[in-house]
Amino acid sequence: MKSLTLLAPLLFCVTLLCSSLNVASDSAAEALAILKWKASLQSQNHSVLLSWNTSNNPNTKTSPCAWFGIHCNHADSVIKINLTGYGVKELDLSTNELYGIIPPKISQLSKLTYLDLSFNQFSGQIPPEISHLVHLQTLHLAGNQLNGSIPREIGQLKFLTDLALCSNKLNGCIPASLEIIRATKDFDAQYCIGKGGYGNVYKAELSSGDVVVVKKFHPLHTGEMADQRQFLNEVRALVETRHRNIVKFYGFCSSAGHSFLVYKYLERGSLASVLSKNEESKKLDWNKRVNIVKGVVNALSYLYHDCSPPIVHRDITSNNILLDLEYEAHLSDFGTAKLLNPESSNWSNIAGTYGYIAPELSYTMQVTEKCDVFSFGVLALELIVGAYPGEFLSNLSILTAESIPLNNVLDQILSPPSPEVVNKLVFILKLAVSCLNINPKSRPTMHTVSQLVFDHI
């Protein structure tokens, strides 16, 4: 038992453990578990849980049956905790070997914002009464034995942003996914705006007026999706990743018919698309291109040095840099490769896109930060040239900044840059070449790249 937040001013009836949430009958173990639980509670100074202390129990030092709010059966096994009138806002009972049904009366926890019952042995259906938890933001029910249809009522929870239902025997889709399927007419080709190795990308306009991007995985066979608990952790990591230069991730849906990720829609599409169209490319002036380099560096530095554990992108390309109306860069599509099992037919040991892959990956088969540094070098050079810089990458062993005069590589579709911008472009060119060093040990780290960019542009 992990966390339960109590706020005395909030009034409602609570039944936490009843006959449908059964635990082991060892009263000593129960007492220790409850005391550990109590230690994590946040409450006012005059706690109603003062009796939850073995030294205050006149009957025994191990049984919790005389404690306030604790109800036991004749075998001195805890069957209920009743804390009526002490507003529970967070309840985490994950990984506790609880079994039985999820009681509909859980809806009486009307102030609940966080509910985690994952990785237990709950069975039966998800009670539709959960929709009465109008403040709920997180609902984790993964890793149980729940069956039946996913209640449509869950779609009424307007604050719900984190929903985990995998590793159960449920059928149907979560309500939001139903709307996405409707908005794309079951992923009709007319809504497809991009294609990749793992799946296709669709644009969906929801009934609320919001527009999202949906990355739908290619059909997966049984067992191709990664271990569910590991997969859930990966998705949580994506949800918790927040940076102005990283595309906002909204959620994930997996069912027998569809598996897809949902992201924020960015109006100008991919950098690759903009560079491929003359009129659009002309709007991407030198200052905007310099700012795109800065944005990508900021995003990668965040993934490597502010996330724990660090996140290696694996596929940095102009297709995975999305632009908003102001041409600000947003890194997308990181983490996708980690969602599949290595045994999957959709898996490739060579993670990334041809032309951006670090040369050592072909023989080490190990994706590292230095692989992303190499891909960033290709991307930075592409922004200067205005197209994929294939001719400059054909012989990396002799590639130096001196061997590439700036005037010979500048995108001719744009007017010549000002002297101030020329200095920035010369720096970016030198930085790109250092990132493209054929020896990964000689490439700078992304932290070093970030510091250099901060100092020079």
From TrEMBL:
It is found in: Membrane. GO terms for cellular component: membrane. Residues 187-457 form the Protein kinase domain. SMART domains: LRR_TYP (SM00369). Residues 1-20 form the signal peptide. Keywords: ATP-binding, Glycoprotein, Kinase, Leucine-rich repeat, Membrane, Nucleotide-binding, Phosphoprotein, Receptor, Repeat, Serine/threonine-protein kinase, Signal, Transferase, Transmembrane, Transmembrane helix. InterPro entries: Kinase-like_dom_sf, Leu-rich_rpt, Leu-rich_rpt_typical-subtyp, LRR_dom_sf, LRR_N_plant-typ, Prot_kinase_dom, Protein_kinase_ATP_BS, Ser_Thr_Kinases_DiverseReg. It comes from the Eukaryota. It is a single-pass type I membrane protein. One of its GO terms (molecular function) is protein serine/threonine kinase activity. Coiled coil: none annotated. ATP binds at K216. This is non-specific serine/threonine protein kinase. It comes from Gossypium barbadense (Sea Island cotton).
